[in-house]
C-alpha cells in the first residue's frame, strides 16, 4: 500500500513532500487502521474553502484509484494544521516521498521554530 501511495504522490506535480504519521508510522496499527498522511503542496491556495477541500478531495481521489473503502486515507495539508499536529507529524520522521529536499528542510525548520516560539517557550514561562 505504501508503495502505491508513493507512486500516486510522484504522479501529482503539486505534491512536494508526503509524510506518514499516526499508528501506521509508529507500528501500533491494527487491521482496520486508516493511513494518516500529511502533504506539503507546491501551490498555496488563497480561498479558505479550497484550502480545506484540497486534502479531502485528494483522499477521495486516491481511495478511488486504489479501490479502498471510504475513510481508509486521512490527508491533511501540513501548512493548515495546528502547530502541535504538524510537530507530531514530523516527529514520526516517516517521509514517504520528497520531490524537493529544500522544501522538506524548510517545513521542518518552520515547524520546529514555531513549536519552540509558540508552545515550548510559553510552557516554560507560564507553566
Mean pLDDT: 94
Strand content: 15-25%
| Percent range of helical residues | 40-55%
Distance between the termini: 43 Å
Strand order of the largest sheet: 3-2-1-4
Walk me through the structure.
- Helices cover 53% and strands 18% of the residues.
- The chain is built from five helices and four strands, in the order αβαβαβαβα.
- The longest helix is centred in the C-terminal third of the chain and has 26 residues, at 101-126.
- It has one domain: Beta Polymerase, domain 2, CATH 3.30.460.10.
- With 127 residues, the chain is α+β, with helices and mostly antiparallel strands.
- 22% of the residues are buried.
- Helix 4 (83-91) packs across helix 5.
- The N and C termini lie far apart (43 Å).
Could you give the topology of this structure?
Blueprint: H1 2-11, E1 15-21, H2 23-26, E2 35-41, H3 48-65, E3 73-77, H4 83-91, E4 95-98, H5 101-126
Helix pairs in contact: 4-5
Short description:
The protein is built from 5 helices and 4 strands; from the N terminus they run αβαβαβαβα. The chain is an alpha+beta fold. A 4-stranded mixed beta sheet has the order 3-2-1-4, sandwiched between helices.
Keywords:
127 residues, alpha+beta, Beta Polymerase, domain 2, 4-stranded mixed β-sheet, 5 helices, 18% strand
Amino acid at each position: 500500500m505504501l508503495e502505491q501511495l508513493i507512486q500516486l504522490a510522484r504522479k501529482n506535480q503539486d505534491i512536494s513532500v508526503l509524510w506518514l504519521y499516526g499508528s501506521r508510522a509508529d507500528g501500533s496499527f491494527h487491521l482496520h487502521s486508516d493511513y494518516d498522511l500529511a502533504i506539503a503542496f507546491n501551490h498555496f491556495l488563497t480561498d479558505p474553502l479550497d484550502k480545506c477541500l484540497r486534502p479531502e478531495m485528494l483522499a477521495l481521489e486516491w481511495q478511488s484509484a486504489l479501490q479502498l473503502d471510504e475513510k481508509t486515507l486521512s490527508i491533511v495539508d501540513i501548512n493548515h494544521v495546528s502547530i502541535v499536529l504538524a510537530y507530531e507529524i514530523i516527529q514520526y520522521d516517516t517521509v514517504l516521498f520528497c520531490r524537493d529536499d529544500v522544501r522538506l528542510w524548510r517545513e521542518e525548520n518552520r515547524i520546529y521554530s514555531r513549536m519552540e516560539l509558540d508552545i515550548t517557550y510559553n510552557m516554560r514561562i507560564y507553566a
